[in-house]
Each structure stands twice: as structure tokens, then as C-alpha cells.
């Protein structure tokens, strides 16, 4: 059975798990305030066996919704009978006015070590990550995709590894191995020479990394908008980050942290970190054009990694990358920056749609294509 659950029930479920995506916390509904949010739970009798945050996006002029579960739901994806879990969800969301469901199963399908990605970029014959044999593949994840397709779910097309929602490829740094947590020395040793040199250069130059309070979001946003102008993307308004801060930290004071890197009193880089249990995410970053040579971006990343390790995180997630390995592609620079940390590229199962009302779903997808 699937039913609406309270925020308290949802948070109790999250507390019982090692981690779930921060996009699946009740607080995220307050951040995405243009959507209607609902927490739902799966129950086997009186025992809860899963949970999700659902965001309802309304169709213009109609009280019908796309029900979106970003990087969710959190349930047993290894279950052989997935329809027994997902069909009750469909019935519940349809009763709430959903014309379609979009979800992003938190299922990892393949992994490529940093050395493998680096070699792929150097090989002109290889254009994308999928052209490179993975270091690790999970047959069970492929079986999930087959079961979803057999149940009528449709994989959302991606371009460069990105769909309209969340990235299919992320870059992780594992903070533990079979022997337990890694040391800072081990993490540094896993980085390439350029990363280690830049961290040392920042320290020698006197870059100081501190944590900021809510008032410092204005300083972060100033540098963030400068970064947006330089890199050619549309920045989010400061009100978005204010909502993130208020909602996430109200849920858990350690959920979101702001980092500021200063050099001789000048702010040179700023980032936000989000953590849920054992998973920590680098969510937003910014740097100034001036004083880039003091390597504030490397310094602030290294501090976040160290703090995530000290907090007991097992994964430091640098979030999305494109799937390009083409040395001529402008996006490959971000891939190379993250590869330098010594982590791994991680492929998720991607996002999937289930049309409930096919006419409205077709109209919605046509509308998205024309935007």
C-alpha cells in the first residue's frame, strides 16, 4: 500500500537509512515552492518499506500534474516484482490528479575509475563514456531497466548525459574502502599532481576557508552571478539559496553548509555542501575571475572533502558531469577538473516516465520540446 505520510514519518524513515538523496527530503518541497510537495510511504501491513518526496508540476490552466520523484523513490530496487511496488504508487498519484509520473531510480549501473576516464579522454577514437568499457557494471541494475520497460515505463532521453531533470552521470570520491574510512593522506595521494599542487599553492598563498552564516549568502551570490556571466549560464536568484538554507537547515542544522575562501580579505571562491547521512554533495560553487591563481576553488573543495570525511560520510559527490570524452568539447574541462580528484564516474539508471493520460502526456512532452 502507498499512502501520504507526515513530515515526521518521512524524516524517521530517512533517519533509518544510511542516506537518501537530498532531493528526496521533505525540505526539498519548500525549496521547489513552485511545485506542490507530498511525502508518500510504502507499507507492508504496518511496516514501512519505502518512502518518496513527490513534486507535482501543474499543467497550465488544468488541475492535472506531472508527478516528479527526483532521484527517488527510496525503496528496494532489487525486488523481483517491481510492479507490486510501483503499481500502488501509480494508483495513488493518479488519484491526486497526475497525468504522468517521472522518477529517477537511485540505482547505479556502471562505474569508471579516474584513470580509465583520463585514458578515454586521451584516446581520440573514444567520444563518450559509453564507448569505454566500465571498470564495474551491475547486471542487477540492467535487470531493473528491463522490468521498468516491460511495465510501460519509458526512459527519458538525454543529451550529453543530462535530461530535463537530474544528471545521469555523477562524479564520486569514495571516502572509505574495505578497511574503513580513508585518511586525508590517502585521499590526497589519490588526486593527480595538479590537484595536490593547487591545494599546496592555495595554502602557501594564505587562502583561508571558513564556514559562513545565512548573511554570507549575499557574498556567495555575488560571486556566483559573476561566475554565471563568465561561464555563460543563467544564475538562480538569491531567494532560491535563502530558501535552501532555511528549509534544509530547519530540517537538520548540518544539512547545508556554506564555505567561503578568502585571500587577503578578498572572497575568491564560495561553495555549498549538502549532506544526508553518509552521502555529501557539492551542490553549488563560484569563483572570482581575479586572483584565480591562488587556487581558492581547490582549497574550498579540499576543505569540504575533509569535513565530509570527519562527519562520517562515505561518499563525496561532485554531482553531474556530461558523458563527453571529446577533448575538443568545451564540457570536457569540467570532467577533467573532477577526474583530478581521483574519484570515479558513476552512471545512474536515468529518469523514467510513465504516462497515465497519454493525450496529456503527449501534449506535455511536445510543449517541453518547443520551449
UniProtKB/TrEMBL annotation:
InterPro entries: Acyl_CoA_acyltransferase, FEMABX, PG_Glycine_Bridge_Synth
GO MF term (any one): aminoacyltransferase activity
Coiled coil ranges: none
GO biological process: cell wall organization; peptidoglycan biosynthetic process; regulation of cell shape
Pfam families linked: FemAB (PF02388)
Signal sequence extent: none
Keywords: Acyltransferase, Cell shape, Cell wall biogenesis/degradation, Peptidoglycan synthesis, Transferase
Transmembrane segments: none
Superkingdom as given in the UniProt entry: Bacteria
UniProt key word Transferase: yes
Xref: PROSITE patterns: FEMABX
UniProt similarity note: Belongs to the FemABX family.
Protein name: FemAB family protein
Organism of origin: Aeromicrobium marinum DSM 15272
Phylogenetic placement of the source organism: Bacteria, Bacillati, Actinomycetota, Actinomycetes, Propionibacteriales
